[in-house]
């Protein structure tokens, strides 16, 4: 079996069960655009993995390759040690993608019934409808659903049987808060049953709350891979906030060492107190705070905290963009 430039199983599998997903040096370009660049990736049973990345990072392309909807230009990939097509035929993979319309001229329960009929390890219809929170709309025509309801139906189609891997591309787009909660509750159940869940999202708070592993893609490559806590720690920066009663010299604050961002809100002027709240992001909070005292400032309500996943994500991708820009400049 060939292992290059095709979506095939890797020839030599290590001892023990094959990984759920294995990418080895996978690349995919569309004309001049390199969407996936020499990607290595391995997912294991029971992991809940969030795929993050700015627009155009290559998330959907990676999921399309994984599901055999696109063929790599080079490298090899496998699901459970077999081709994606074979794994899907065996009913081991359920997917909920952004693209692709739903069949409109049928009732919800008929469409879900069709997915059941095609699944070798299908669940009972009532259970699928209930898990996806669509029992009450089972008699509706698919063409009459709202965007959020359509997403729930897609979810039902992806979980119509006992899959070992569930792949979700921005699954909660268009869902309201309660639908999201139901959705992630159902996903947690799947993960507790040992299933691997891989989802691409732009909602970083979802990744933080749900995933036990976060992979940040940028320009088709893995920029960071670890728990949300590890990603935040890797971004390195800390948030510092404090109040100042005396007028501040903004230039002096801007010149503090290791500072990566500064905002000063003049929240006391209306009350006539002159109090300002300063928020700083710093690569070395200890050094920044030390220098702050050196300015003769008397910060009140000083707080130093780690970055949220969102700020860590921005810090990582911005730093990577800056490195790429410097490299491009040097190459000119
Ligand atoms: N069919 C296509 N033809 C040409 N270029 C494409 C095609 N599909 C994707 N691309 C390009 O490949 C790159 C990666 O796109 P992809 O959709 O995989 O990113 P993404 O991370 O899923 O983005 P988003 O968060 O915006 O959905 C982008 O530059 C995109 O414009």
UniProtKB/TrEMBL annotation:
Database matches in InterPro entries: AAA+_ATPase, ABC_transporter-like_ATP-bd, ABC_transporter_ATP-binding, P-loop_NTPase
MF terms in GO: ATP binding; ATP hydrolysis activity
SUPFAM superfamilies per record: P-loop containing nucleoside triphosphate hydrolases (SSF52540)
Domain (ABC transporter) ranges: 21-244
Record keyword Nucleotide-binding present: yes
Intracellular or extracellular location(s): Cell membrane
Membrane topology field: Peripheral membrane protein
Keyword field: Antibiotic resistance, ATP-binding, Nucleotide-binding, Transport
Principal location: membrane
Keyword Membrane in record: no
GO biological process: response to antibiotic
Gene3D superfamilies registered for this protein in UniProt: P-loop containing nucleotide triphosphate hydrolases
Name of the protein in its database record: Sulfate ABC transporter ATP-binding protein
Organism the protein comes from: Streptomyces gilvosporeus
